Amino acid sequence: MASAVREQAAAREFLGGDAIVDAWVADFELTDHGLVPRFDAAVMQRVIETVHEPRWDEWEALTVPTLAVFAKHGMFGNDDRKALIRRRSQTDRIDLDGGSHDAHLDAFDMWIDVLSRWLARE
């Protein structure tokens, strides 16, 4: 167990202090070679590459209630936020006063508050 703690501390030191680091480190597996991801890096790379392909047709076709939560320091600029809502105006939009792309981790209380209120709406 002490070995796992040392490995996790080393991983945190290497990866930095962002909120997402705790999630990454918690998902590593301790092996004889140290901590390793539980996923195939090549598969992860292929999945991430598709994120940059436009999916406007799919977005505009949604028929379910939808909430877009934008964090103050998130990855979407104001023009991107406006385009997302303009292309599907029935989407509810909430802007957080803090947080990053990982607002569910680094602005947890704000995230839970807005999500809870939105889910409880009538």
Structural descriptors:
122 residues; 51% helix; mainly alpha; two-stranded parallel ribbon; 7 helices; single chain; two-stranded antiparallel ribbon
Low-confidence stretches: none
Question: What spatial form do the alpha-carbon principal axes imply?
Answer: globular
For the residues shown, what is the average pLDDT? 89
Work out the helix count: 7
Largest sheet: 2 strands, antiparallel
Summarize the amount of helix as a percent range.
40-55%
Which structural class do you get from the secondary structure elements? mainly alpha
Topology:
Layout: H1 2-15, H2 19-26, E1 29-31, E2 34-36, H3 41-49, H4 56-61, E3 67-70, H5 78-86, E4 92-95, H6 103-106, H7 108-119
Parallel strand pairs: 3-4
Antiparallel strand pairs: 1-2
Describe the structure in brief:
The protein has helices at 2-15, 19-26, 41-49, 56-61, 78-86, 103-106, 108-119, and strands spanning 29-31, 34-36, 67-70, 92-95. It is mainly alpha-helical and 122 residues long.
Description:
Helix content is 51%, strand content 11%. The chain is built from seven helices and four strands; from the N terminus they run H-H-E-E-H-H-E-H-E-H-H. It has helices spanning 2-15, 19-26, 41-49, 56-61, 78-86, 103-106, 108-119; strands spanning 29-31, 34-36, 67-70, 92-95. Strand 1 and strand 2 form a beta hairpin. Helix 1 packs antiparallel against helix 2.
